Description:
- The chain starts with a helix and ends in a 7-residue tail after the last helix.
- The chain is mainly alpha-helical.
- It has helices at 2-8, 11-26, 39-62, 64-69.
- The longest helix has 24 residues, at 39-62.
- The model has no long low-confidence stretch (mean pLDDT 81).
- Helices cover 70% and strands 0% of the residues.
- The protein has one domain.
- Its main location: mitochondrion.
Amino acid sequence: xxxxxxGAVQPVTVNRTRDIVQKxxxxxxxxxAKSKIGPGQSFFIMSVFAVxxxxxxxxxxxxxxxxxxxxxxxxS
Length: 76
């Protein structure tokens, strides 16, 4: 079985994947922020993000009784 696995991974394939990963990593770079954001902006963005995440869950939880009262579809 080991000879089968040894033949499946060829050195050319390994080198090709290594080159692809190196090319991808070389295109990732970071710089310091151009302008700093204040605590008010941070709070606003975090609150918008929280509302965006929690509003759908709150809607579903609020309407659970209505979902339970719906008639179940007949089995096909």
